[in-house]
């Protein structure tokens, strides 16, 4: 009871004895518990009820003497009980308004008499008798002073007491303790349900509001100050003796429309206090208003202007929900902790007095450790990572809820913003495909901030303080001094963040002081090299302000803002923010500067060029998102980039070409690069002495040269030679990958291949087949594959010893690489001399095993490569047969649903079927029905190879009949209507073979083949002619035979 | 002032104030005359006295710091006769509005060197910075922050470590970091004010 009363009950004032018990929900429930206990005491424990208190409980009552009935002697002013103690004192004595009670029995009767007023009576009693147990049992049992009092001590005490009393006292003491437990438990339940503020939460809120306070017309408050600058290690500013009451700090708030308010922030909430007493400069801690759950709610109630201006602050939409969420999580954690505490009580009732401190007090230090300053909540140490992740998830879920809640107060904009929300979600999906994202969920390091902080930390903290408190002059000095720290060092970067420097620096950007803005941006530019800082800058809304600065007149400022954006926009969310705030358009606007060609620009032009360079840098970062690429194009960025591409300076060219090559993944850009005549400049810069620039140029050509015209342009501008030359530089792997990629794509054109041979590129490429990273190998092999179109190159590869390396690469796993390697090996195999090497190296077996690769591209490519191998190998039939299960494997690939695989396998089967024995085997594996099943297709490539395969397969047994039965004939006839002459030829041959069977002739005739074939017979293609004529002849012969049979 | 005299004056000033062309010089002279400069009883010379000059600085260029404004006046008033003559006016504005970095460094140093002994001392810095920090009521020594700020400045700018800033120190520091040009208080117009002033001065007179 004592414990519960001191700890849980809410006393108004600190001074013990004089405080009053307020009627709060918590207290009320406590009192009710006590009353219930007392009332039922005499019936439940009649013996104990008769026990006479050591000292009477004495208090001012409002009961009238007349209220007392039987068992009491009532006079006009006094009432005394008939029962007395050993000394003859009445057990209940009422004189005037003072009542003295000496036993539970009379207490419960008194409460019974009091009826409705019992709550008041209990309150009055307990107010005066802070520790009733002392009075009831004697000072030894007190709980207020002797917190460490243990059961042992109690027992000890009990023993010393008069033997008669002992047992009784013991029992009462235990009963009272039980009540105490009960009270504590129930009050804990209450407390944990309530809104609990924490120092961190209050600090956040105050910081947030401070940002929007000031003399400005639209500020939400005029001022907001702490009464004390000293912050205790637990984050509280209230003096320790007030912290005991859960108070965190006191604020002096000057709203725009009402008088100055003195406010207490406590764990229970926010309320108005008595203000500062003038003569003593001390705060009157008394509560003067209702309790609100947080500062913003409080101010909403109190100041109309606050509500109005709050709605105007555009950033609050971004910030506020976040902070609110933050609170919610803290509450969750706190509740948890209470829950634990409660359990502890449950399980160890006996030891309860040993527990050093009550839950309320205890929880505070733990909290502040866990939820310390502002934005660090994301950055938990190892053991809390899981928790943090969970929270982040919750964040996302609660975001819509909480932000909607906020919006209610700003009705007009709510529709717009919620619309915005939907579109954001859509974008999330669309952007997920874009390339090279920085990992958003990068694990944050460097958490535990210990006592052994580097000295820089304290110096930076001091400087931040000066920036905060200083005018323009002091701020500039502090900013300059801060730049003297090694800002590339992570310790300094994080120190700036951890002392709240980022908020201050970003805040400066929103001022009118150009110098402060420049100084701040210079620092932000450096420290935004750090991924965590980037994220925080974005979280604090820095990007929006920087985008705004891009409109500034001051060119230095524009440059710095663009450069900082370039650094920050390295992750997806930031890039999206830039775009959504119109940043892309403004950045593209920066690109527009005076003619570039001049070798010696005036200082003014130089500035413009510098601005354009910074703009290009920022666009480069932004261009990694697909939507931004489009936004750049729509903002008219392409012609401006083309203009800048003519610049002679490599520091300008690198971001420009970087942007272009990034954007060249989009077809629209590839077209524009060709049409804006950028290829010429790209080619020119291949000769730069900057490897980075060369790399980006090569990479842009790589992406663009899929297009025939572009390839020709590269050749015409003399780009092939520098590309070939760059192959010699094998140290820079990125450059090498880009260059080999460009060569690969350029080599698709035959003219280019010839050029490459002249420049001895083939030899160089073969040299790159070993010891290269996969990105390079893919391109090298791709390039060789294209170069093999020329017979001469195929021999060059052999002579340079490239074939063993290529065959060795067939054992790889990289899908792209395998596609290219099989293609290259296939191309090489067209040369019988090469083929013998491949055969010796068992290359065909390797190719064949790639048919089992799960990727359709690899399957098809391998099957294509097998064709020339069979064609050119000696003893091909024997070789193929030697692959155990090989024929079954390839026939089964006819069940694939990829057209390219089907076409390639048909081609391979055509070649396999040239060997009669093999044809027999594949027939046994059911090749005929599988081919027939494919006959209904519109794909000309497949049609052609299918027709070839069918005509080859007709050569065995009664396959011709089988094709007829499996209904392959009618669809084949339709192939003759295709527009592809190659299809015609293959089909005519197949039909010729099929027409050897009379039933097929009938089917063909029925499908109108004669007319189609007659046309083909007039073709210039002899093979086609012959096959068509042969087929017609077969049909005719059958008709004649039939006529003969009919008419004899 | 008659036309001939004006011509002559502007011709000669064109040579000394090299950032203005002749037209602009004429405009400035006219502006100077329009400012209502009359020979006052106390001074024999014609020109702007301290108060009217300070008034211009305050109203036109938004300066607020009394001490700095006094120093700016001193910097304009080359001959120390407590009055800015028309020559000093045009020449001063030439640097004030369009000075090169070098000229501005010299000018700012002159402004900050309160006792004109060729050095900006600790005490002078303290004097100029003393209002630059918001006073924290809780701090024991309200000047502590300022003192610290002075030390920070010296650490950054005092290259020869003699505990005071020579012109060489100042110049080197500013060249390295342009932001330090107005290290001890704003004594140059910000871009907006300067542009507004130029637009007004040079357009107004062209109407005449």
From TrEMBL, chain A:
<feature type="repeat" description="ARM">
    <location>
        <begin position="541"/>
        <end position="583"/>
    </location>
</feature>
<protein>
    <submittedName>
        <fullName>Outer dynein arm-docking complex subunit 2 isoform X1</fullName>
    </submittedName>
</protein>
<dbReference type="Pfam" id="PF00514">
    <property type="entry name" value="Arm"/>
</dbReference>
<feature type="region of interest" description="Disordered">
    <location>
        <begin position="357"/>
        <end position="452"/>
    </location>
</feature>
<dbReference type="InterPro" id="IPR016024">
    <property type="entry name" value="ARM-type_fold"/>
</dbReference>
<dbReference type="InterPro" id="IPR011989">
    <property type="entry name" value="ARM-like"/>
</dbReference>
<feature type="compositionally biased region" description="Low complexity">
    <location>
        <begin position="410"/>
        <end position="423"/>
    </location>
</feature>
<feature type="repeat" description="ARM">
    <location>
        <begin position="885"/>
        <end position="927"/>
    </location>
</feature>
<feature type="compositionally biased region" description="Basic and acidic residues">
    <location>
        <begin position="364"/>
        <end position="375"/>
    </location>
</feature>
<dbReference type="InterPro" id="IPR000225">
    <property type="entry name" value="Armadillo"/>
</dbReference>
<feature type="compositionally biased region" description="Basic and acidic residues">
    <location>
        <begin position="389"/>
        <end position="407"/>
    </location>
</feature>
TrEMBL record, chain B:
<dbReference type="InterPro" id="IPR018247">
    <property type="entry name" value="EF_Hand_1_Ca_BS"/>
</dbReference>
<dbReference type="InterPro" id="IPR002048">
    <property type="entry name" value="EF_hand_dom"/>
</dbReference>
<keyword id="KW-0106">Calcium</keyword>
<keyword id="KW-0479">Metal-binding</keyword>
<dbReference type="Pfam" id="PF13499">
    <property type="entry name" value="EF-hand_7"/>
</dbReference>
<dbReference type="GO" id="GO:0005509">
    <property type="term" value="F:calcium ion binding"/>
</dbReference>
<feature type="domain" description="EF-hand">
    <location>
        <begin position="64"/>
        <end position="99"/>
    </location>
</feature>
<feature type="domain" description="EF-hand">
    <location>
        <begin position="100"/>
        <end position="135"/>
    </location>
</feature>
<dbReference type="InterPro" id="IPR011992">
    <property type="entry name" value="EF-hand-dom_pair"/>
</dbReference>
<protein>
    <submittedName>
        <fullName>Calaxin isoform X1</fullName>
    </submittedName>
</protein>
<keyword id="KW-0677">Repeat</keyword>
<dbReference type="InterPro" id="IPR028846">
    <property type="entry name" value="Recoverin"/>
</dbReference>
<feature type="domain" description="EF-hand">
    <location>
        <begin position="145"/>
        <end position="180"/>
    </location>
</feature>
